[in-house]
Each structure stands twice: as structure tokens, then as C-alpha cells.
Amino acid sequence: MDTIDILNKEFFTQDFVEEQPSAEMLNRYKDIARNYARMENAVAVLSDLRTNVSYIYYGSFSRMLGIDKCGDEGKVSSIWEKEIFKLIHPDDLAGKHLQELYFFHFIKRQPKRKRTDYYLTSKLRMKSGTNNYIPVLHRMFYVSVPFNDALWLALCLYSPLLFDTSAKCLIINSANGQMTELDKQNSTSILSVREKQVLNLIDKGLTSKKIAETLSISINTVSRHRQEILGKLQVKNSIEACRVAKDLKLI
């Protein structure tokens, strides 16, 4: 199962309640996406995870990408904007999907009132109209369903990378400026080798005492690894840690 398959499973198996967000509520977020495209000249994609539909708004940056749709708006019957994905360097596209999966789990672990504080920002290479790869800033926001904890909308923005940074991908808390750097695009580096060993043994049902004996380490060290794993995967317990790690192909 590749990352898109995992994301589809995570997105579409959420518990969307029967009560649907109103058209007025959706239009409010469509206006936000439209204004990002206008004010930042970005390409903005608003994806509805409940109905599997995307709304695309083309700012002036679309011309640089060779998309002759500046000022246009579009709707596609998928949350995957293939017209844009085909412009992203293949290595960066694979990393982008892994980062979004990690960010999805990160946001799901946050209190609902805090979720809008966070967004994901990363650097991509995208093919321009002259067939050269140019640096692009990608930003992503999730919006929850008003009635429960499911994530309803995903807003992706593509714009020129004006200021380069050493970090390839950051989760930013816009309320306080705190930044969390994700490991490099290979998600397997999220956990250390020892942490993966501990988590594999947890997944097999071993107690901390048995894990300590198996790895020839102390119980206190096992406990420390457990806490590090929960923190890195942004989960509350070992059961969730094993599930998320499998989704991220860490174990």
C-alpha cells in the first residue's frame, strides 16, 4: 500500500456525521482559498475530504508553472489535483504525501480548538513553463467538521519560494510562532533505530520488562523510549503509536 492509499484510507474512513456542513460554511472557505490566490498570486486548492471534490483557484503564479488559467477557477472530482502533481518533482511528491500523512496524524491529536493554529510548510521543486524545476513554497491547512473531530477540508497553497531555509518541512503554530521541523523526506527517520525496535516489540505484545530483557537495556530506558515514541508520533498511547507507525511504514 503506497502513501496515497494510506491517506485515502485515513481520509475516507473518518466518522463524518450525517449532519452536513452548510453550503454557506463551504463557501466561506472557498472564499478564503480564492482570496489567497488573488492576494498572494498563489495556486490554491481546497479539497473536501467528505465528498472527494477539489476546488482550484489560479493566481498569477500559475503562468510561471505553464498553466494558462490565471484568474480562473476549477472543480475536479478528486482530492488529488493531478494537474498540479504532475509538475512536482517525483522525489518531492513522494515526500509531500508522507509529510501530509504525518501532519494529518499531528492535527488529529490536537484539541479541536487548537487545530486552526497549525499549518504545514515545505519546499518543493515544480516544473515551470520553460520545463525547468523551480523552488516552490507549499503550505497546507486542515479544517475540522464543525460537529465532530473529523477533518473536513484541506487547503494547499503553491507560491514562489522567496526566502530559502535549511529546513525542508516545518509544522508552524501561527498563534505563537513555534516551529517543529519534520525529519527529511524519508519518513523512516522519524524514529531512531532503537525506538523502532522497542515499538516492534510493543506491537508484538511484550511488556516493558520483556523488552528490556530482549534488548539488554534497563526498564527505565524502555520507559524513556516509550515516551519519546509517543511524543514524536503525537499519540496518547502505545496502541495508537503502533497504528500510526504502521500507517507511516515505520514498522
From TrEMBL:
Start and end residues of each HTH luxR-type domain: 184-249
A Pfam short name: GerE
Keyword line: DNA-binding, Transcription, Transcription regulation
SMART domains reported in the protein's UniProt record: HTH_LUXR
Keyword flag Methyltransferase: no
Name of this protein: Response regulator transcription factor
Organism of this sequence: Parabacteroides hominis
